Each structure stands twice: as structure tokens, then as C-alpha cells.
Amino acid sequence: MIQEKGKSKLLLLFGISFLSISMFIYQVILTRVISAIFTYHYTFIITSFSILGLGIGGIIAYRQLKNNKTNNQFLKDNLIKKIVLMPISYIFVLGLFYILPFSINILVYIIPAMVPFIIGGYILSSIYSEFSDISNKLYFADLIGSGLGSILVLFSLDYLGVIKSIILISIISSIAVIFFVNFLSKKYIIAYAVLGMFVMSIFVPQNYISVMEKNFGSIITSKLKTFGNIISSGDKAEIVYTKWNAFSRTDVIRVDNDPNEMIVTIDGTASSPMYKFDGKDGSLDIYKKDVEYLPYTFGKKDNVLIIGPGGGRDNLINKIIISSILVMIPGFFMGMPFPRGIRLLGTGDKNVIPIAWGINGAMSVIGSILSVIISMIFGFKITLITGAIIYGLICLYNRDRLIL
Fold it and tell me: Transmembrane stretches, by residue range (predicted)?
């Protein structure tokens, strides 16, 4: 048993929750950062293969448990090392992506992006293996953390931006370190040291944060992005404003050869011009030569209706509520077999649990890729029906093992 004597398992559950919060936010931040580097097709591929790291972490844990079945101290020390590395890995990977120049080779992004997931998969699979008797509670704590992370990440990216959000997940992960290390060991000074280090980073001046957010290596160096394309053409340009949120990265670019115009980009592309206006109607005459002015040349226009992404907000909110309720129902039933299966494995050889975790991670990636391929070819209805049939067949096959 790797648990320190006399320690409550609530520490373990809180550690799982905080770890899940940080991992979920990391996944969303990773998606946002990669979206600003590539198009969304590549973003999906990179994120999916990164999550495969959860399975790889489970396989690594399985091999170590298999080779050190009786050496509890080795397993405990190794687990603590991985736990302490978790918050550091977030800073390292996302910081690396931010300063690297653009590369068309997606392996440059896939391999580093896997690192936090590999560490997280190792931690979670090891804990599930050791404490399979409370797998339902562990799974509940895991899902609670993921749910809280899905809410927190929206506020984090909207109000803090990407740099401070990276610091935030490192702090959250450091709190998980404190819970885990207190549960596993009496020597937890290093846990507080890691937390203190990341808390101190909150006090970095905002002007330094702004400079870091503007100097995103891939946007500055990629010819596929508006700013990089302008620079490569020989013109001088400057990013005068940058804002990250849950939807995108928005930049305002000033080009030296045209002082009356700036360019607004979303994720480095989707450019829109922004013109200087001094408040005098006469200064707008120069724009009457543009083709966009053609609809206004006929008749008198007292009112103009502009239809954009803001339309239909009430209808969108209703769809979100209804969709959440509909997804919650199958999610409830699909969440039951996993902890039951872990508990059943624990009654036999519990060292098999990490490899089961690894298979789960690998199949999740395969399933996500297949779902996209099937939906692109046959549509979403066929995709949902296919998923329901596969799930039904699995339940039928395991009807004697899992009593729902």
C-alpha cells in the first residue's frame, strides 16, 4: 500500500479533482494555441494524438507495476516525482509552443503536447490500480474536476488571456500536488515550494504579459499568417493589440505604408481592414470607389440591417440548454461501466488496470477520429446510430460482468 498511514482518502479525491481541472483546461488551451498555428483540421489531429498520451502513461505505469510488484517505496517515490512534474510540464510545453518559430511538421507539436497527458495518464492509472476498491469515488472526483475545468476555462481565457491561463493551470496542478504528496508522504515541503513558485508568477507586470502574448512565434514567422506574410513581403508591420479569449486570438496589425488603415485578424488570418475616421463625413469619400459601396448608390438609405454572428442569441441559448439535457442522459449511463470495470479488474490482478487505462486512452483517440470520418462521409445521424450500436453490443457482451 503506497498510502501514508493515517491519511484520509479525501486528500486523494481532492487531488484527482484538481488534477482533472488542470488537465481539462490544458486541453482547451492547447486547442486554442494550435488553432492559432494551424487550421482546425490539424488542430483536431494534434489534440487527438496528444490525448493518446493518457494511454501511453497507463502503459508505462503497467510496466513499472509489473516489474516492481513488491517494491512499494519505489512505486511511491516514482509516483510523487511524476506528480511534482505535472505543473512544470504545462509551463514547459505551452511556453515552448509560444516561442517556437512555425514548422509545417505536425510532429513538432504532437510529441511535446503529449507530455502532460503521459504524466497525467501515469498518475491516474497508478491511483486507479492501487485504489480500485474506491474506483467509483475516484471516477466521480475525476468527472467533477473535468466539469469544473470546462466552466473555469471559459472565464480564464476571456478574462486572463492565454499566458495567465497557463500560469493558472500550473497553480491548480500545484494544489493537486499538495493533496497527493500529503496523502502519499510526510515529506511535502517540495509540494509547497512548487506552489509558491507559480503563485509568485502571478505578480509578473501586465506589460510583460502583453509583450509575451504579442510575440507568438508561429504567427510572427509563418507565411500562412497575415502578419508573417506582410513581413516576408518586405513591408514593415507591428502588432499593436492582442487579445486571447475562449473563441480565438485577435490581433490588430499596423502596416507602415498605410497610416490610415489597420488589419484585424482572427487566429492570425481571417483578415478584416479597419479604417481611420476623424468624424467628418467628407473624409469617407475616398471609400466610395470600393466595390462594397455599390449597394448604397441606389435610392435613399435611412436604415441598414447588418446580419452577423450576434443574431439569434436567444435561440442559441435554448439549443445549449436542450443539448446539455440530451447529452446528460446517455452520459449518465455511459459513465457507469467504467468504474465498475475497474473494480472488477481490481478483484483479480490489479496491476492489469494501467494497461486497461492505456487501451481506454488509445480507443478514445481511434473513436474520435472514426467519428469525424464517418460524419464527414455519412452524416451525424449515421455516426450517432453507429456509436449506439457499438455501445449496445459491448453492453450485451458484458451483460454477465456488469450489472447496470
Answer: 12-34, 40-62, 83-100, 106-127, 139-157, 163-181, 188-209, 320-339, 351-374, 380-398
Place of cell 470607389: 289
- Strand partners of residue 262: 254, 274
Cell 493515517, located at residue: 6
Structural domain boundaries in the chain:
10-204+327-397, 210-297
Low-confidence residues of the chain, pLDDT below 70?
1-7, 39-41, 69-72, 186-199, 201-202, 299-301, 304-355, 357-358, 361-362, 365, 398-404
Q: What DSSP string runs through 170-216?
A: HHHHHHHHHHHHHHH-S--HHHHHHHHHHHHGGGS-HHHHHHHHH--
The pLDDT of residue 322 is: 60
Q: How far apart are CA 69 and CA 375, in angstroms?
A: 45
d(CA 92, CA 138): 28
Residue 272 sits at φ, ψ, to 5 deg, of -135, 135
**pLDDT at residue 291, rounded to an integer:** 73
pLDDT at site 332: 62
Q: What was the pLDDT predicted at 102?
A: 86
Q: 3-state DSSP: the chain helix, strand, coil percent, rounded to 5?
A: 75, 5, 20
pTM: 0.78
How many whole angstroms separate alpha carbon 147 and alpha carbon 15? 15
Radius of gyration of the chain (CA): 25
Candidates 5, 28, 187, 182; CA nearest to 113 is 28
